[in-house]
Amino acid sequence: MNKEPAGGRIRSIGFLAAQILFDAAIINLSMLLAMEMRYEPSVPLYQIRIFSNLWPLMTALGLASFYVTKMYRTLWRYASIGDALHIVMGTGLTMASTMALGMVADLFLKPNLLLMGSKTVYPIAWLLLLMMAGAQRFGVRLVNQIGVKNRALKKESCNRVMVVGAGWAGASLIRELTARGFREGLPVVAVDDDPAKANTRMMGIPVLKGIENIPEYAEKYQINEIVIAIPSASLAQRKQILDICTKTNCKLKLVPTLRDVTGKSEKIGETRDVNIADLLCREEVRLDMGAISAYLKDRVVMVTGGGGSIGSELCRQIARFEPKRLVIFDIYENNAYELANELSAKYGRALSLTVLIGSVRDLNRLEQVFEEIRPEVVFHAAAHKHVPLMEFSPAEAVKNNVFGTYNVARCCDKYGVKRMVTLSTDKAVNPTNVMGATKRVTEMILQWMAGRSKTKYMAVRFGNVLGSNGSVIPLFMQQIARGGPVTVTHPEITRYFMTIPEASQLVLQAASIGESGNIFVLDMGTPVKIVDLARNLIRLNGLKPDEDVKISFCGLRPGEKLYEELMLTEEAETLDDTRFEKINVLRPVAVDPAFEDKLNALEACAASDPAAVREALKALVPTYQEDSQAQKATA
Predict the structure, then answer these.
(1) Nearest to 173 by CA among 92, 230, 99
(2) Which tens digit of pLDDT belongs to each residue from 497-532?
(3) What is the pTM of this model?
(4) Is residue 267 classed as helix, strand or coil in its secondary structure?
(5) What stretch of H or E contains 189?
(6) In what order do the strands lie in the sheet with 353-357?
(7) I need a surface site. Which of 213, 376, 473, 557 has the fewest CB within 10 A?
């Protein structure tokens, strides 16, 4: 604990002494003024004699009352309404105790003590004392606030804040910024759409009307930061406000809503930076908790690739449903170790957790694990997913993605696993790259196994996940931090996006209703232009696209498509709705009778003839159209 410097203690003692002397003076002055007001034009002589006997005792009682009601233990530079009650109680107790003592003396002691004057003097004296004590103490706060505000305004680096929302959250935010001496921002103006609040002031800050006028106000008041303080706003309302705010090039922050803080470390009243997920404003997933719990509670659940972006979030979500045992299986021990520590800290002994290291490419290791732990539900998230890297190492993509999945699927069959859920991707649809083609083969493996096993095999197909390892968001953030340029492959390239928690929750939900051989297609919303994503990220950092940070176009990478698709043309005829709004399902289709032979041929190529891997993939996936750039990359 830091000790207060000697100079600071001396100043504190000096201020306290001055405060006590001031209070002693106003306690007596309030009585004198009250007597003058009560007996105008002149105070009777006996009243003066009463006061001369009363003032030492009254002073002592007053100072004691101020101490008891904590008036000497309040930092008045940060005084609030609650602190004002201490003044009311302290001054009231002063007059009440003085009056009570005078009455006791008048009734039971010698009358010539002359301690009791006119009873009407005391309420007048109390009001006067209340005003003087309050004015002095809140004057300290006002002077301090004005001084700090003026110093903040003189700083070149002053962070000028606009508050969107003139309700209780906005008022709390302004109060908090003020209490912290404007170190985190100086509230300059508030904006609200409520006509009743237009042209008013909130805690000294002007309130202006019209969310649509935010860019104009930001320029007029030289705003650096905008904080959206409307916790009750719907996602659509918040997106509308954010879309307007992104036109300002101000840094954006949010006061979290109730749905944001549920089950998270965020708290109402705190602020956080706006992220790209906020701009997408994906609707909250409404889970059927009973359906998910029915197949996870008291079951042994295994997650391959459990330390990865999606795998780790799956583990977090699964832990909520009280599995009998949760097994994290991963080749990379550092991520698995960190996740295990996180879950152990949160759940303690309530969660039976096991971390096992190994590769899905190693069938012997998988056999050992399945025989030992006997999983009942398996989520298969282990995979190579970087499109350009897999173009240069196609055999490794096949070994891990295709035959890693095949190994897990065979173990599930052999050891009686009830259901296996594999994560797929929109890149599996009409693939132009090795990674997408391998993912399409994994879907086919599950549909082929579905007719040969009691295990329920399912795949869940979705697009890009915000913030996952290797996604464009972390890359763009690094480039922005370096001052740019931000590299985008093509002006027209678009992708589907969802958040990691949303993807994980929908995977769990889909698995609760799936039949063997099902491929689930998640509702990814509207595709987003990557260049728009880049520009928004630049703006979220308070910078101007193409001015502060340049955007450069570097050309499509090997195997990359301009537009992703969520299903094949022939699959569209088999698409069915489910009872869950964001989950659609493709009915199982017949698998090529020669599938197993072609799969064996692919395995042989991956092991001994990597150059022939692409041709073997084309034999399995007729819709695979190899990209010309990919051919050059591996020529």
Answers:
(1) 230
(2) 888 888 898 899 999 988 888 999 888 778 888 898
(3) 0.69
(4) coil
(5) strand 186-192
(6) 353-357, 325-330, 300-304, 377-380, 419-425, 456-462, 518-522, 583-586, 575-577
(7) 213
